[in-house]
Write a structure and sequence with these properties.
The protein is α/β, with parallel strands linked by helices and 412 residues long. Helices cover 31% and strands 20% of the residues. It is built from 14 helices and 19 strands. The strands form five sheets. It has a six-stranded mixed β-sheet with strand order 3-2-7-17-18-19, with no helix packed on it. Strands 5-4-1-6 form a four-stranded mixed β-sheet, with no helix packed on it. It has a four-stranded parallel β-sheet with strand order 13-14-15-16. Helix 6 (234-242) runs parallel beside helix 7.
């Protein structure tokens, strides 16, 4: 795949523009110069720009997935892989993600600064990346991958191979957080409750003492970072929110009181509903144990209830998928699942402007507007009326631009 000249001027003419804030289409041309959008208005003069006739197609912002794991291929037990093979597999997953229209991702465990740099340097194509490095877990927590009969130390190579850090006590979690900052992360992730994929903890196990969570938040904030917390239960969400955690990952058992607390603190919810459906459907294919499958079904049973509660409380939500142990090609299905409970316009806001807020680029990403980076999708129709246009591995995307470079398609 050959990227376009980033100094070029491109005029996308004769289409509609999706205004994600208003949840409406408007007729306008879009002028791109270099990496940025320089004008959005009807009847723009092309000047020296290359003109691309859209013929009624829709220009919308690139999608943002705020919870991915590009170094975890659900079809292969990655602790058995060489690091070079993990990177090679990740490069393919990154390219496929970009071709689906996801121009920005937040990796929530596994990817390091080298992988981010490889994409930035054009060594292989992929979305813009914000990385968490290795998530922090308490002993016996969601990041401790020992089985209950395993007596080996929690700091063994097995924990490292699973791309986690097991740390207990205020001093240890401070040290672990500082190490991840040193390694170049954009945010720090902690495990604040049990989870589906871990072998020894129930989903409703609230994890890390308050002093430990507060210590990580302090370390992150002083380094100009923030903390994201894996949390399912209302108590786990509330504990993390009160300690200053900025984003709550999953949050499936959210209740009304906890949602109000999140809204008051400005915390952002990143639900990841598609993973539970796909884990249950592909359990045999990806080797899910009966214990893990039971936990996945427990979480799946909550359905879209957390979305409805969060929306009523005024909690901002961003799109996440977390296809850690499930085939990655179902990434865009998250949009359809959310539309079962939310208006399509709200779903698209979560996948664009709210995601931009999560990665702290709300003034540069998530909108088709002057001064924003030219992360753009040209859709063969109206995505507000039909979210299925964002399915099928990008088949309905005539063009994809990332920072003004055409990475897929040409409508000349």
């Amino acid at each position: 795949m050959q990227a376009e000249d980033r100094t070029a001027r491109i005029l996308l003419r004769g289409g509609a523009v999706l205004d994600v804030d208003a949840g409406a289409l408007r007729r306008a041309d879009v002028l791109v110069e270099g990496r940025s959008i320089v004008a959005v208005a009807p009847g723009l003069a092309p000047g020296s720009a290359r003109v691309v006739e859209l013929k009624g197609r829709t220009v919308m912002p690139g999608l943002i997935d705020c919870h991915v794991h590009v170094c975890a291929d659900g079809m292969v037990p990655y602790p058995t892989l060489f690091p070079s093979l993990v990177t090679a597999r990740a490069s393919q997953l990154l390219k496929e993600t970009l071709m689906r229209g996801f121009t920005t991702i937040r990796d929530m465990g596994g990817a390091d600064a080298g992988l981010r740099r490889a994409v930035e340097d054009g060594l292989f194509p992929g979305p813009r990346m914000f990385i968490s490095g290795r998530p922090l877990s308490q002993t016996g927590g969601h990041g401790d991958m020992r089985n209950p009969a395993d007596a080996c130390p929690a700091c063994s190579l097995r924990a490292e191979a699973n791309m986690m850090v097991v740390a207990d006590g205020v001093d240890a979690v401070r040290r672990a957080a500082r190490e991840e900052v040193r390694r170049g992360v954009d945010q720090i992730k902690i495990m604040a409750s049990g989870g589906v994929s871990s072998p020894a903890d129930p989903v409703d196990y609230d994890q890390y003492a308050l002093a430990e969570i507060e210590a990580v938040v302090d370390e992150a904030s002083r380094a100009g970072k923030y903390v994201a917390a894996h949390a399912y239960t209302p108590t786990a969400i509330a504990r993390a929110t009160r300690c200053g955690v900025r984003t709550i990952e999953h949050g499936n058992f959210l209740d009304e009181a906890t949602a109000s607390l999140m809204a008051a603190h400005g915390a952002i919810l990143v639900p990841t509903l598609v993973v539970y459906r796909r884990v249950v459907q592909h359990a045999a294919e990806v080797g899910i144990s009966a214990f893990h499958l039971e936990k996945a079904r427990e979480v799946l049973a909550t359905g879209t209830r957390s979305l409805e509660i969060a929306l009523r409380a005024g909690v901002r939500m961003a799109l996440g998928t977390d296809l850690f142990r499930a085939p990655k090609q179902y990434q865009a299905e998250e949009l359809l699942i959310r539309a079962e409970a939310l208006p399509e316009a709200e779903v698209l806001r979560q996948a664009t402007i709210h995601g931009a807020s999560v990665v702290r680029m709300e003034n540069r990403l998530g909108r088709v507007a002057e001064g924003y980076l030219a992360d753009l999708l040209v859709v063969d129709g109206d995505p507000l009326a039909n979210l299925r246009l964002l399915q099928d591995q990008g088949a309905h995307l005539s063009m994809i631009l990332k920072e003004g470079a055409v990475v897929r398609g040409a409508l000349d």
